[in-house]
Design goal:
This protein is α/β, with parallel strands linked by helices. It has a single domain (6-161), classed as Flavodoxin domain (Rossmann fold), CATH 3.40.50. The protein contains 5 helices and 3 strands; from the N terminus they run H-E-H-H-E-H-E-H. It has a 3-stranded parallel β-sheet. Helix 4 (106-118) links the parallel strand 2 and strand 3 (122-130). The longest helix is centred in the last third of the chain and has 20 residues, at 142-161.
């Protein structure tokens, strides 16, 4: 199991230069080159991001946008390598937000769903927690850890039986 902390990586945003169109390979040379193989090999991808102004962080958005080259492979070049012989992959989203706004996660969920589609992972759900602003606030929500444990178990079980 690999854990990537996007804030520790140097990932430039997508330039929409279409350099990936001929081959499905991004032409930007940065840390995303180390991330692509991990995204492609993982059976379960969990994207975790706090909400900033009703969206995922800039680090998470750079990852999503730079997955454009994988979208190109899947949809323009029709490469089946993303599916690995019909292998099922799952994507899951975890997020927290400071406000309790009813629509707090809507934009982020839509972005994440399209990201998982581009990398050929079925959207398996999310864990979302409102009203959390400071480090450690999650500890005031005793049900959160149990919900996370149950979600993880379900992801693995569904992958093994699916």
């Amino acid at each position: 199991m690999d854990r990537l902390r996007l804030a520790d990586l140097n990932i430039s945003p997508c330039r929409e230069c279409h350099g990936c169109d001929p081959t499905g390979q991004c032409i930007i040379q940065d840390d995303m080159l180390k991330v692509y193989p991990k995204l492609l090999e993982a059976d379960i991808i969990i994207l975790a991001s706090p909400i900033f102004f009703y969206g995922i962080t800039a680090w998470a958005k750079a990852l999503v946008d730079r997955s454009q080259s994988l979208w190109v492979k899947k949809y323009l070049l029709k490469e089946l390598s993303l599916s690995k012989e019909g292998r099922k992959r799952k994507g899951f989203f975890i997020s927290v937000g400071a406000t309790k706004g009813q629509r707090l996660f809507e934009g982020a969920i839509l972005t994440v769903k399209y990201f998982f589609d581009a990398i050929h992972a079925d959207y398996a759900g999310e864990l979302l927690f409102r009203g959390l602003d400071a480090k450690g606030d999650i500890l005031k929500r005793p049900e959160a850890l149990q919900r996370a444990f149950e979600a993880g178990r379900k992801l693995v079980t569904d992958l093994q039986t699916g």
